[in-house]
Amino acid sequence: MEHGIYTLHDFMKQNEDLTYILLGVSLVLATLAWMFLTERDDDE
Questions:
Q1: What are 1-44's pLDDT values in tens digits?
Q2: Which phi and psi angles does 6 have, rounded to 5°?
Q3: Residue 3: inside a domain, yes or no?
């Protein structure tokens, strides 16, 4: 079982990790969406 968050440093570190993961995923998804939209535009 995971331990609780006892200090401000533990809380900030946990949120920092989650933020970087979400930013990385959003960059990949934005890149894929851009590639999908520009490929569809070239077919015209």
A1: 467 778 888 877 878 888 899 999 999 999 999 998 888 665 55
A2: -105, -20
A3: yes
Cβ atoms of residues 14 and 5 within 8 Å: yes
Q: Which two tokens stand for residue 29?
A: 């998804």
CA distance 30 to 27: 5
Domain extent for 3:
1-38
Residues 6+ apart with CB under 8 A from 5: 11, 14
Q: What is the C-alpha to C-alpha distance for residues 32 and 41, in angstroms, rounded to an integer?
A: 14
